[in-house]
């Protein structure tokens, strides 16, 4: 159930092949518009502030500034942007920290092929998404 209006997305990952995979997956849904890609946390914050995307897909293991710290800054400079983490990190503590920062979802990279579009749909519908092997755990989010 995709929204009729276009959803503007910023994709942040330091791996060019994985960033291309995410973008090509998103492009299968006409309503999803990838407006920019970034490869480090500093660039993510700058692009979030400059472009004000509806959704940011953010890796945690980024050079320069990691995704957790980038998310903290994005919350300050562009609080209306929704954040969906897509990371190889799968520890409960990392996921809890990511969601506590206000991220709406978390996808482990190894599950991106099966979980990515469902996660994007959930997050843009203001629902939490935690996929794959993390799904059985309960994660709390800050109250909005």
Q: Catalogue the unreliable spans.
A: none
CATH class: Alpha Beta
Principal-axes shape call: globular
Rg result: 13 Å
Structural class: alpha/beta
Q: Give the helix level as a range of percent.
A: 25-40%
Specify the CATH architecture: 3-Layer(aba) Sandwich
Strand content: 15-25%
Structural features, described:
The chain has five helices and six strands, in the order E-H-E-H-E-H-E-H-E-H-E. It is of the alpha/beta class. The chain has helices at 16-26, 41-51, 67-77, 92-100, 112-124; strands at residues 7-12, 32-38, 55-58, 82-87, 105-108, 129-130. The protein has one domain (7-131): Response regulator (Rossmann fold, 3-Layer(aba) Sandwich). It starts with 6 loop residues before the first strand and ends in a 14-residue tail after the last strand. Strands 2-1-3-4-5-6 form a six-stranded parallel beta sheet, sandwiched between helices.
SSE arrangement:
Elements: E1 7-12, H1 16-26, E2 32-38, H2 41-51, E3 55-58, H3 67-77, E4 82-87, H4 92-100, E5 105-108, H5 112-124, E6 129-130
Parallel strand pairs: 1-2, 1-3, 3-4, 4-5, 5-6
Helix pairs in contact: 2-3
